[in-house]
Amino acid sequence: xxxxxxxxxxxxxxxxxxxxxxxxxxxxxxxxxxxxxxxxxxxxxxxxxxxxxxxxxxxxxxxxxxxxxxxxxxxxxxxxxxxxxxxxxxxxxxxxxxxxxxxxxxxxxxxxxxxxxxxxxxxxxxxxxxxxxxxxxxxxxxxxxxxxxxxxxxxxxxxxxxxxxxxxxxxxxxxxxxxxxxxxxxxxxxxxxxxxxxxxxxxxxxxxxxxxxxxxxxxxxxxxxxxxxxxxxxxxxxxxxxxxxxxxxxxxxxxxxxxxxxxxxxxxxxxxxxxxxxxxxxxxxxxxxxxxxxxxxx
Length: 298
Fold this sequence. Notes:
- This protein is globular.
- It starts with a helix and ends with a strand.
- By secondary structure, the protein is α/β, with parallel strands linked by helices.
- Strands 1, 2, 3, 4, 5, 11 and 16 form a seven-stranded mixed β-sheet that branches. It has a five-stranded mixed β-sheet with strand order 8-7-9-6-10. A four-stranded antiparallel β-sheet has the order 13-14-12-15, sandwiched between helices.
- The protein has helices at residues 2-17, 38-46, 59-68, 87-95, 131-136, 138-144, 156-166, 178-182, 229-238, 272-279; strands at 28-32, 52-56, 73-80, 84-85, 100-108, 112-115, 126-129, 149-152, 171-175, 186-189, 199-206, 217-225, 242-250, 257-265, 284-290, 292-294.
- 43% of the residues are buried.
- The protein folds into three domains: 1-109 and 201-206, D-Maltodextrin-Binding Protein, domain 2 (3-Layer(aba) Sandwich); 112-189, D-Maltodextrin-Binding Protein, domain 2 (3-Layer(aba) Sandwich); 215-293, ACT domain (Alpha-Beta Plaits), CATH 3.30.70.260.
- The chain has ten helices and 16 strands.
């Protein structure tokens, strides 16, 4: 709870120091919608004391809202324990110069299979969900719905909305438990993910980095040849930072050259000298500092 309060204090301090939100105004948070996504849950958990949540059809639109000033923050999925990095969302972050990571939220994921009222498990011939939801439920579906095809949707909530609109007993959605009531669906099976340790972490983005002491995590984008990333990792270690995560994406014009999203940690707080030391390496762009926070399973 103390870490959560510190994170929220830093968010509000950021708003005040950069003039993002006046005291009488409500700050705006774009997130991957529609309503009922895990991204909405992450946004509600991080901004538990307020904020106007704005569902967007894509992560790119949510990030663009921050760049244009339509939103003060954006919340985007980053990585799942089963499905790994959400690569197209990492691409949106990498390409958006002018946004910074100011928070990280880890949410437990309990995927639920839901269908229209009256549907039964034996009726299901198509299961729709976000790519991550399909990956996380693949093993369960192979056992209990071996003949059902998979249909990828833009989000788990979009899948639930689609099932509600179709009113077809042969179609089910894998989505967050709360989506069933939101879209008038019935739960056909709970906990259809591969493991109970299933978690997703989300980045909270803003148009300006946090300027506080004691922030324990830092994120950088590194653009270099694959053979050169070890030099950056050594420089990071020499600066007193430990690597937490490293995700690669193709640079797009030269084979063997990548964008790496690199998250580092210093439990005593990342300092300016460490940021400068890592940022001085060729091809490195600083993406911000923050304190991570996690929601416990209910």
